């Protein structure tokens, strides 16, 4: 079976992570993605071959100097026969190079133009790298141990989230049948993902606070716990989970969510003492058959070893495959394009 996006052509003028990740997700689902690279190649090629491969499989590449008349003419020819263009650059560069719907509509009225930026097309050119956005939107401030410094996750959460959101916006506008400009910014995406934390402040004045071991602000117990060996993530969200867990761990009392929230410190002390009597791996094995959300903390190599079905081969590189599963369709994972200095 062909991919669900077969027949859709998307032009990408993307750099580094967010934009290329967005179009790679679409390419995995069958879209034809043409990556426009400047003379010298897209900058992420300099980071490393495996880095570039992890964000650009299933695409083809053309080299266009968009600052030249010839490059603009060739871009116009591509646009005339494409469904969408996705760009992630500074707003001033997007406008200067004519990569907006207003500039390109004369070539294709139904073209969908997606601008992926730090702060919006009219939000200025301040640098908008992933870690900077996490710091600017409150994510870093609410992450980490209460007595420690602000903390950032070990991967590019803002870039990846914004890439997925941009892909959603692009497809939504294509489905509408109308061309037009779509804007997605890293700042807005990260604020949106703070949903219930932001709502608690906006409506109740509740300032986000950090809890030890990344504990949830509402549910108790829902956090990481040290065990006899390793750490266990335990996530008790309702009373049924608690009854099952308490029975297995030989804990009495705290029957309702309200009771557990009111006695947070006492509950955590009792649960910590119980979990310290066995290893994280054993607790996971004991709790999963009971339907209790729990997992031992694994390293990335351990996680990949347990999910071999998610590791795919794209040319010479082993990569993590598409998370979107479509019945009857299996993506063909082709390698990232080799950079050709001659445009086509």
From TrEMBL:
User: Keyword Transferase on this protein?
Assistant: yes
The reply to whether Acetylation figures as a keyword in the UniProt entry is no
Q: PANTHER family recorded for this chain?
A: SUCCINATE--HYDROXYMETHYLGLUTARATE COA-TRANSFERASE (PTHR48207:SF3)
One Pfam family, please name it. Answer: CoA_transf_3
Q: Which domain of life is it from?
A: Bacteria
**What are the UniProt keywords, alphabetically?**
Transferase
Which GO terms fall under molecular function for this chain's record? CoA-transferase activity
SUPFAM superfamilies xrefs: CoA-transferase family III (CaiB/BaiF)
| Matches recorded under InterPro entries | CoA-transferase_III_domain, CoA-Trfase_fam_III, CoA-Trfase_III_dom3_sf, CoA-Trfase_III_dom_1_sf
Q: Which organism is it from?
A: Mycolicibacterium cosmeticum
Coiled coil spans: none
Name it.
Answer: L-carnitine dehydratase/bile acid-inducible protein F
Q: What is the lineage of its organism?
A: Bacteria, Bacillati, Actinomycetota, Actinomycetes, Mycobacteriales
């Amino acid at each position: 079976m062909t991919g669900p996006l077969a027949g859709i052509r998307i032009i990408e003028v993307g750099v580094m992570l967010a934009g290329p990740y967005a179009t790679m997700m679409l390419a995995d689902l069958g879209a034809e993605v043409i990556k426009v690279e400047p003379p010298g190649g897209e900058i992420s090629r300099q980071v490393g071959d495996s880095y570039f491969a992890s964000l650009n499989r299933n695409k083809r590449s053309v080299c266009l100097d968009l600052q030249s008349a010839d490059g603009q003419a060739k871009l116009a020819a591509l646009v005339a026969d494409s469904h969408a263009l996705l760009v992630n650059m500074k707003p001033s560069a997007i406008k200067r190079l004519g990569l907006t719907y207003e500039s390109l509509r004369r070539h294709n009225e139904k073209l969908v133009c997606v601008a992926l930026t730090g702060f919006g097309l009219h939000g200025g050119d301040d640098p908008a790298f992933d870690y900077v956005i996490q710091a600017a939107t409150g994510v870093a401030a609410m992450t980490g141990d209460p007595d420690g410094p602000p903390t950032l996750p070990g991967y590019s959460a803002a870039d990846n989230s914004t890439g997925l959101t941009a892909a959603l916006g692009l497809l939504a506008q294509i489905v509408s049948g109308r061309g037009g400009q779509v804007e997605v910014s890293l700042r807005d995406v990260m604020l949106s993902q703070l949903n219930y934390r932001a709502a608690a402040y906006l409506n109740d004045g509740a300032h986000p606070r950090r809890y030890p071991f990344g504990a949830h602000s509402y549910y108790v117990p829902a956090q990481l716990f040290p065990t006899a060996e390793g750490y266990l993530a335990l996530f008790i969200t309702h009373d049924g989970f608690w009854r099952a867990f308490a029975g297995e761990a030989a804990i009495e009392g705290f029957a309702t969510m309200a009771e557990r929230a009111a006695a947070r410190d006492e509950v955590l002390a009792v649960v910590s003492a119980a979990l310290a009597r066995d290893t994280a791996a054993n607790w996971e094995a004991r709790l999963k058959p009971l339907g209790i959300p729990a997992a031992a903390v694994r390293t990335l190599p351990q996680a990949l070893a347990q999910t071999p079905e998610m590791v795919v081969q794209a040319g010479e590189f082993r990569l993590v495959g598409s998370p979107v599963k479509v019945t009857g369709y299996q993506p063909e994972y082709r390698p990232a394009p080799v950079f050709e200095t001659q445009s086509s």
